[in-house]
Description:
- The chain has about 220 residues and is α/β, with parallel strands linked by helices.
- It has one domain: TIM Barrel (Alpha-Beta Barrel).
- It has helices spanning about 20-30, 45-55, 80-85, 100-110, 125-130, 150-155, 155-170, 185-190, 200-205, 210-220, and strands at about 5-10, 35-40, 60, 90, 115-120, 135-140, 175-180, 195-200.
- It has an eight-stranded parallel β-sheet.
- The longest helix has 14 residues, at about 155-170.
- The protein is globular.
- It starts with a strand and ends with a helix.
Amino acid sequence: xxxxxxxxxxxxxxxxxxxxxxxxxxxxxxxxxxxxxxxxxxxxxxxxxxxxxxxxxxxxxxxxxxxxxxxxxxxxxxxxxxxxxxxxxxxxxxxxxxxxxxxxxxxxxxxxxxxxxxxxxxxxxxxxxxxxxxxxxxxxxxxxxxxxxxxxxxxxxxxxxxxxxxxxxxxxxxxxxxxxxxxxxxxxxxxxxxxxxxxxxxxxxxxxxxxxxxxxxxxxx
Length: 221
């Protein structure tokens, strides 16, 4: 199995934007080791700066649109994202939902090997996304996002059920889990349930001691 992923979504938190995004990336660089692949999911405004500074953390886009170069004001055009250093992207996050055609069209435009993590609210959405062959699917019950209880505790069955359902549809898709993930115990439980990594945000971006939290996330790997 490939190394598990620790994917940190910077969102647009003040503690993870502009110069604070650079500080958070530096903390992730220091925490990254050989046991996991660390991913920083940056806003479009910060992506190029972070990608230019990153050495051992992958920098992904938070979203991309299936449009080309041209008259697409306000859209996030994939080729420029790649040129500016994006090493992957989220799509269909609970805070930026799109339809299946959007995901399908986007995947058809991207080069082979460019990782895309499609987010799913439940098992049925995960199955539908698996048909499109993204690199990853992250199951995140929206009611638990940003909360104090990890999905691995509140609803462990949705993780294991999503893994089983996705693998039945498309064995090549790797499954992550998110929503409320905050510490190494949550990461260990996610892997025990069959996930191959985690997607989290506030557990890192709002942490009082970011270095300690990042170290704990990989401590049990």
